Amino acid sequence: MIPSIHKTGSETIGLINYLYGPGTDEVHIDPHLVAAFDPLTPDPGRDPKATYEQLEHLLDQPVNALPASKRPEKHVWHLSVRAAPEDPILSDEDWAAIARRMVAATGIAPDGDEQACRWAAVRHAHDHIHIIATLVRDDGRRPRRHNEARRAQAECRRIEADYGLRRVPPGDGTAAKRPTSAELHKAEREGRERAAREELRENVRRAVAGAASEEEFFDRLAAAGLLIRKRVAPSGDLLGYKVALPDNRNGEKEPVFYAGSTLSPDLSLPRIRKRFSGDSDSPSLRAPSPESAGPAAARRSTATAAWQALLIIDHGEDSLVAAHIAAAGEVLDALATTSAAHTRTELREAAFVFERATRSHIQAERGHDRALRQAARDLVYSGPALGRGEDGATTAMAIDMLFFLVTAAAHWHAKKEHAQQAAAAREAAEHLRTAYKATAGAPLGVLYLRGRRLSQPLRQKQAAHLRAAVPELAEQILAEPGWHALAATLADTENAGHDPSALLREAAGRRELGTADSISDVLVWRLRRLANLPADATTMPGHTPAAARGNGRAVSPIPNRDDLPGKTR
């Protein structure tokens, strides 16, 4: 349940007109009073004799009783309380009780205070109410509203428990503004997947992912088809910007613009500029070179950058960790934009929900996150990846490492008691798991078959490497279905001139693997990246397609592959 305390206003009748009217997009259905300071308060929604002016006069009586010089200029208080989409529809009686609890918790009308502020709660949709109050008590004093927003949040947490509603993690004031009811209804009516505010936020985040300058950022916004308005000072300096979807219009058929700062706190122009400036000792992001500009190379470098970032998140200072988590959001945005159709939806959802994990009250120290931002830039400029071959296999490799990075971010946020951020990172990890399963099956299946065909002495040799490198995990790995794929990879590393045991120790050393469901999968991708082996084993010398062996029938890949990359319990 989400409470939103809106800016105070100066005209009671204006807010009453809105609450009882059709709404911005005619989404107000059956507006009516569910509760008020006085049971006899007139309800213009249900009583044909009651008028908006009567309700206004009743609410404003304490204000008008003051001398004109002592009346507050802005005396209209407005709170909306919204249930989650999956919550059951509450009755008017339930909403009335919730309204009374909210005005008591915020100091507008404490329980038992007969001189409290006057208020009324209006319901005009099934999932939320609006509470209007005047900020002068019946005794002429002002209400005590200190920390009203925090107290409103705390009361909503108690209401969720009492009514069995979705439990919303407590926030810290760094979340992006949620779409309003009107915006959500408008999106539904127009057949949009998301509200315009959310769609714009996603587009702006994609435009800033890996961008190296303001010019590049605005060029990307224009290329995405967004309308742009820039706010320029008399000196010619750029102060800010607004964006709009070309087909999102208001009642006057004009585009509805949103400032970057209203889409998300970190999308204001000053905050975006910090990404470009970074640390003075950090070189600028480079354009991808021709030899490393392909989608597969970009995904391989993304896995490397994520691997390095894990060390920072595990052991770095808070400001550096915050910067790397924010940059990880850019990588997810870039990967979702450039991946094949069968993984794009899940990757897009992962990026969308992880956005909440990229901000907290810990200020990010920009510049040290250059490797991740460069990875995002490489992904963008490498272009769309195919869902097969080396493109598909390196996508699985990148997702595998990003899963660990996102999971590490969840653990860090949980340690810092950032409840919403930790929950968002965990949800993003679930989407990455699903995307991984969609892309890893084919390349791991090839390796599995190659491992099954290894001679007995060669399999024993690889098992000996395993026991030498990770003795505490060896027997668990040998019992996994993915061991055959790992054995094939160990053989490939040896053929490439590496020491399999040493490489395996390095692959297993940076993250504890004891709680992984599929340690084999994780080690396969790490070894193939560290040894610079093709992620798609069908390109290895001597590979024979499955359909060309035996009687010509393709051999099924790993059976019952429900294991997920590095899943932690």
UniProtKB/TrEMBL annotation:
Q: Which InterPro entries match?
A: Endonuclease_MobA/VirD2
Which Pfam families does the UniProt record give?
Relaxase
Q: Which residue intervals make up region (Disordered)? A: 167-198, 270-299, 536-569
Q: Where is the composition biased (Low complexity)?
A: 286-299
Span of domain MobA/VirD2-like nuclease: 71-165
Q: Which domain of life is it from?
A: Bacteria
Q: Where is the composition biased (Basic and acidic residues)?
A: 183-198, 560-569
Name by which UniProt lists this protein? Relaxase/mobilization nuclease domain-containing protein
Species of origin reads: Streptomyces sp. NBC_00093
